[in-house]
Amino acid sequence: MQPRAFPVILLVFLVAIAVVNWLAGVYHWYWTMRWFDMPMHFSGGAWLAGFAVWWQYSRRGLVAQRFSRLLGVCLVYALSIGLVWEAYEAVVSYLTGGEMNEILDTLSDLLFDILGGTTVAVLAWVKVKLK
Fold it and tell me: Could you say which DSSP state residue 55 is in?
């Protein structure tokens, strides 16, 4: 089976996330809508899990044999970047003398990364089982 090219939907999704993030910065949505980072973390986790599915399976023409492995791959990708992002936020906050995020905010962000990754794993598994 021939390796598949990078999916257009992932590129469109990434551009959409970038545009919304840019608009959020311009219009201060992260500060005026305290909940706004929740869908952004969900989207980021979903994008990373989608990339994981493509990178680990579709690109090489493989099919996930077990849901637990597929879920694990999706969560490793989503959480690895999510954790790096939270560490980045903490370092920037410390260096600029800003307020550190509360632990509940950090846990909420990671939860939405996990939910995004899990959603993609379930959707990918359903797609595999329907074939």
Answer: H
97 residue type, one letter: G
- Measure the CA–CA gap between 39 and 37, rounded to whole angstroms: 6
pLDDT in tens, the chain (131 residues): 566 789 999 999 999 999 999 999 999 999 999 999 999 999 999 999 999 999 999 888 888 889 999 999 999 999 999 999 999 988 888 888 777 668 888 999 999 999 999 999 999 999 999 97
| CB-CB contact of 58 with 7 (8 Å) | yes
Q: Say which amino acid occupies 57.
A: Y
- Rounded CA-CA distance 82/105 in Å is 13
* Torsion sign, CA atoms 84, 104, 28, 96: negative
